[in-house]
């Protein structure tokens, strides 16, 4: 996490309430560790999205089902890390923190929420492929492919929103770090 070092010092002065921003920053560092685990899963398995598209293009039902099943379980694993990170962000938001850090956490929460929504769309698409992909049934095949394409587009939209929130959070952190302390 960038830029919150000096801004996170807790004050325990007699003139005001305790500032728990430093404690919140530690929670966010822990949440970031969860997010790194998600990134590892994503990076190690990114090729599967293309493999799934190739299997679908070849109408290889067995391979589509196999890859889709793997994706469902991978996304489930990633969602556990995501939920853990989101819980930590929410816990940090409940502390007595400065206004800038509260805004930063709001942006982090929005970014992560959109990422989790995106992956849920992709998980649902993979489940449908795993459970219903049948190139021999033309109508069902068309419906499953259309659902996959719709959910893939929604995945991309949600991930773009997540990137926008993440950029805003990072910009806020940079701005705060440039301020005189």
Helicity, in percent? over 70%
Radius of gyration: 21 Å
What fraction of the residues are assigned to beta strands by DSSP? Answer: under 5%
CATH architecture assignment = Up-down Bundle
What fold name goes in the CATH topology slot? Four Helix Bundle (Hemerythrin (Met), subunit A)
Order of helices and strands: HHHHH
Distance between the termini: 18 Å
- Give the biggest sheet: none
Query: Structural class of the secondary structure composition?
Result: mainly alpha
Q: Total number of β-strand segments?
A: 0
Overall shape: elongated
Average pLDDT works out at: 89
Question: Mind explaining what this structure looks like?
Answer:
By secondary structure, the protein is mostly helical. It has one domain (6-178): Four Helix Bundle (Hemerythrin (Met), subunit A) (Up-down Bundle), CATH 1.20.120. The protein contains five helices and no strands. The protein has helices at residues 21-45, 47-57, 61-93, 99-132, 138-178.
Secondary-structure map with pairings?
Blueprint: H1 21-45, H2 47-57, H3 61-93, H4 99-132, H5 138-178
Helix pairs in contact: 1-3, 2-3, 3-4, 4-5
